[in-house]
Amino acid sequence: MIWNEKQETMPREELEVVQLRRLQAQVERIYATVPYYRQKMNDAGVSPGDIKTLADIRRLPFTTKEDLRKNYPFGLFTVPLERVVRIHASSGTTGQPTVVGYTKRDISMWAEMMARSLSAAGVTKSDIVHNAYGYGLFTGGLGAHYGAEEIGCAVIPISGGNSKRQIQIMKDFGSTVLLSTPSYALNLADTMAEMGVKPSDLKLRVGVFGAEPWSEQMRQEIEKRLQIKAIDIYGLSEVLGPGVAIECVEEQHGLHIMEDHFLAEIVDRDTFEPLPVGEKGELVFTTLTKEAFPVIRYRTKDISHLIRDVCTCGRSFYRMPKVTGRTDDMLIIRGVNVFPSQIEEVLMKCEGVEPHYQIVVEREGSLDSIEVQVEVSEEVFSDEVKVLEGLGKKIQNDIKDLLGISAKIKLVEPKSIQRSEGKAKRVIDNRKL
Amino acid sequence: MKVKQVAVFLENKSGRLAEISHCLAAANINIRALSLADTADFGILRIVADDTDKAQRVLKEQGFTVGITELVAVAAEDKPGGLDKILQVVSKTGLNVEYMYAFTQVSGKTGMMLFRFEKPDAAVTALQAAGIKVLSGEEVHAL
Predict the structure, then answer these.
(1) Which residue of A98, A275, A399, B112 is 20 to 30 Å from A9, comparing CA positions?
(2) What is the C-alpha end-to-end distance of chain B, expressed in Å?
């Protein structure tokens, strides 16, 4: 079902008119209200009046996570805090988290984006929605919640964790829709098997999964083990949260971008030059209607491309295939963003630990696991087991404190981690995404 | 009074021990005593050699992480109760033992205990005061 037929099936020519009008208004407002953006535009020699066509967007400077950090916490908000009704923040990044705000209108726009997304997945008001995305600073839980309520579903705000209880509730309440990260969906499937609960004991029929990269193969596994349709959803807090793009249940092929609210570009990952539709590069988003925290040409570092063909579902929005790669070395471990540099920072703070390390990521069963291999230098070596085990424990605790994830620490012999020429290979990702 | 031990860090990988023994053999180093501590992920090989410095050097050259530790060597009678006599003293004086290992020199005559004490100097004093024979480093390395 299409939630907002008029907008979502709008012919491209009309859509482009809407996009341009909104872009011009957005750029004007940002220029007038945020000194940081004004400075950047002045430096780039562009003023709001220069945006005469959609193609003129390429004259505007990019926004990166670095810009967001520099303006921590509220420096890029375009409205006074009295108008902000919600604040979210990203998890696990070096130094400052990135903080985003929403006005009342932003929240209702977001609810509509999520209502459109869930509708595209086939969710209707008669559904019972089991929302296992984390509630809190993370945008997943509340973002999905508002969308499901907008449709009129009965929402179970279960949040993450305690899998056995989740399954009991799905069984007792007759949940028909599951919202979670894909890895958590598989974790639930494992727990069901342990508890002797069969898919036929539940009423689940569809799941909408996002917040971490997942493969086609993982989709097949989820669909088989839970006996549901598994739909991919895309979003990022800097742009909105979940609901920026969604797969339709008809095709399950590429995610429709909500183009009336978010302008997508694909740029060359090295030169940042815009690429024609169809070519693969870095996804860049410009928000068209956001009030509290708009972004201009935000570089997501996610790799994808745009699909122009009209979809059988009737939506006219361009689609983007599943994001499976990034331009940087960020890892997403159980929904948490992890940069190898953060692990390095922890190691460097442990006296005597060598700057040689390697991160090995595996997907064991349904959960991601991360192992950090650390070379044992003479400085930290001891003839006593407890001292070495204590070192491993300390590194583990420090990583947990910083990133909130449990890493396994493996002490290895010096020089056993491969030295590469130039850029060291820090990460071995065996998840086959 | 103390004995020098060479400790080597070992990953749990097949063939690593043989590489160490080969390296020592090639350098003509004799092993007096050894013990291996193992955990799920790594091991620590502890060796008392006839030439500690040389053993340390050749192992380091092979890229191993090596540390030198001081142990206290105690002679024990190789008969029932020989070890107990020593451990009773250790226990009564409240000495903290990190680990120990033992070997016999000539069966039925003398055994030797190698102790890694938390406080080796205090341990030597206490053991000697209790009339237990503490062997010197020279004695042990030259065995």
Answers:
(1) A275
(2) 15
Write down all domains in chain B, each with its CATH number in brackets: 3-69 (3.30.2130.10), 71-141 (3.30.70.260)
Residues 6+ apart with CB under 8 A from A164: A191, A195
Q: Which residue of B has its CA nearest to A412?
A: B11
CATH of domain A5-328: 3.40.50.12780
Chain B residues lying within 8 Å of A389, measured CB to CB: 39
Select from A383, A212, A299, A223 the least CA-distant residue to B4.
A383
pLDDT in tens, A159-186: 988 999 999 999 999 999 999 998 889 8
- Give me the interface pTM, i.e. the ipTM: 0.86
- Spell out the domain ranges in chain A: 5-328, 332-429
How many Cα neighbours within 13 Å face the side chain of A101?
19
Contact A379/B at CB under 8 A: no
Give the pLDDT of residue B107.
65
For A332-429, the fitting CATH number among 3.40.50.720, 1.10.10.10, 3.30.300.30, 2.60.40.10 is 3.30.300.30
Over the stretch A18-32, which tens digit does the pLDDT of each residue have? 999 999 999 999 999
In this complex, which of A376, A385, A410 lies closest to B65 when CB atoms are compared? A376
Question: Hey, is the C-beta of A382 within 8 angstroms of any chain B C-beta?
Answer: yes
Give the closest-approach CA distance of A387 to chain B in angstroms: 11
